[in-house]
Structure to design on (150 residues):
């Protein structure tokens, strides 16, 4: 490994960058079927050799604002490229996923499960399971005590 690449690989955001590449190009990645398998690619500027792709990625995106942020594609069907990527927190990521965009209406407001969970200080998985796995109405799912399924 060249000294240049070794320095790049020690950057705090390099692991995230490598994961993005694996999702798009490594058929052995558990996430490949959702990304590369669906035709999602990374712009050529971010794929340049000898560490330059990563440097271009950081030049275009800036460093990750915090460890709570990850790379997000604004258009979930679009590619990884400067005009379609941003740093976001997990709640924004969850709302942007195609599979999680089902909306529920309660008390005159329509929101995603992630938004309802945040508003009522519930864990996303808890609220999702109450509704989708156990069949509770949104009203019942939001109002039942934490740790309760009945």
């Amino acid at each position: 490994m060249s000294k240049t690449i070794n320095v790049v690989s020690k950057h705090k955001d390099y692991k995230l960058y490598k994961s993005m590449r694996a999702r798009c190009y490594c058929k052995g990645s558990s996430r490949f079927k959702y990304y590369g398998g669906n035709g999602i690619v990374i712009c050529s500027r971010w794929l340049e050799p000898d560490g330059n792709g990563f440097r271009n990625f950081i030049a275009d995106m800036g460093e990750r604002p915090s460890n709570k942020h990850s790379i997000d594609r604004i258009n979930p069907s679009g590619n990884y490229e400067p005009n379609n990527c941003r740093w976001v927190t997990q709640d924004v990521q969850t709302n942007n996923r195609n599979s999680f965009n089902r909306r529920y209406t309660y008390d005159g407001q329509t929101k995603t499960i992630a938004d309802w969970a945040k508003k009522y200080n519930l864990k996303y998985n808890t609220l999702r399971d109450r509704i989708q796995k156990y069949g509770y109405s949104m009203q019942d799912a939001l109002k039942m005590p934490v740790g309760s399924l009945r």
Notes: The mean pLDDT is 86. Helices lie at 3-9, 14-25, 52-61, 90-96, 113-119, 124-133, 138-143. Residues 3-96 form one domain. DSSP finds seven helices and four strands in the chain.
